[in-house]
Amino acid sequence: EYRDVLTHVLKKVMSDSDVVQSLNLPWLVGTDGDKTLYILITSNKGLCGSFHSNLFKHFFHTVDMKNADFITAGEKGGKFVTLLNGHILADFSQHMPFTSNVSAIFSMIDDAYATGKYKSVVLMYNKFISSMQSDPTSLELLPVGNISDESTDLSSSYTIEPSVEEVLKPLLADYIKEQIRAAMEDSEAAEHSARMMACLLYTSRCV
């Protein structure tokens, strides 16, 4: 799978600390900002059991509303943030499937992070575990964190041309996009499972 191969290549390249320190990529370093930009992924529909309530409980325990802005994908999340008087930079709920918005969301967070206003960009979504379980999850996208792998054999490192920075930048961009895409796919799978379980529970009560 492309996502796995991409992660493997990045681990190998970024395991060389001398190479990483020589790079001038803002995605790899923190900023002086005091706010967090959240990408909140929910659903446009209800009737899916605890899918939203569990995520919103996680939201309450995680988010400092005074120092947070939001990009939303899912009407339920957009309405929830609005109810709390949160600031939504953009909403992608009307463009389906949500994965069709990945490039646009990436461009927005890239521009926002470059301003230095945000200390981090965080994905918040329901991670699919199984048909019976999903976990509310917060995943830091920026700055790009622990991709490197200390167990990597540097004696077999890649020869990179024309330069590490020119090659690594598009790879990191793809890596960030794939993180967003994976979160959206996980959220959709968790939503369908939660809706199925809610329907089964309702049917069993009616029998």
Features:
single chain; 207 residues; alpha/beta; five-stranded mixed β-sheet
The profile of the biggest β sheet is: 5 strands, mixed
Low-confidence stretches: none
Instruction: Give the number of helices.
Output: 6
Q: Tell me the Rg in angstroms.
A: 19 Å
Q: Distance N terminus to C terminus?
A: 44 Å
Structural class, judged by helices and strands?
Answer: alpha/beta
What order do the SSEs take from the amino end to the carboxyl end, as H and E?
A: HHEHEHEHEEH
Q: How much β-strand is present in the residues? A: 15-25%
Question: Using DSSP, what is the number of strands?
Answer: 5
Mean of pLDDT: 85
Morphology call = globular
Order of strands, widest sheet:
3-2-1-4-5
Give the helix level as a range of percent. Answer: 40-55%
Q: What does this entry look like structurally?
A:
With 207 residues, this protein is an alpha/beta fold. The protein has helices spanning 2-14, 17-21, 51-62, 75-83, 102-114, 164-206; strands at residues 35-41, 68-73, 87-91, 118-130, 133-142. The chain contains six helices and five strands; from the N terminus they run ααβαβαβαββα. It has a five-stranded mixed β-sheet, sandwiched between helices. A hairpin with a 2-residue loop joins strand 4 and strand 5.
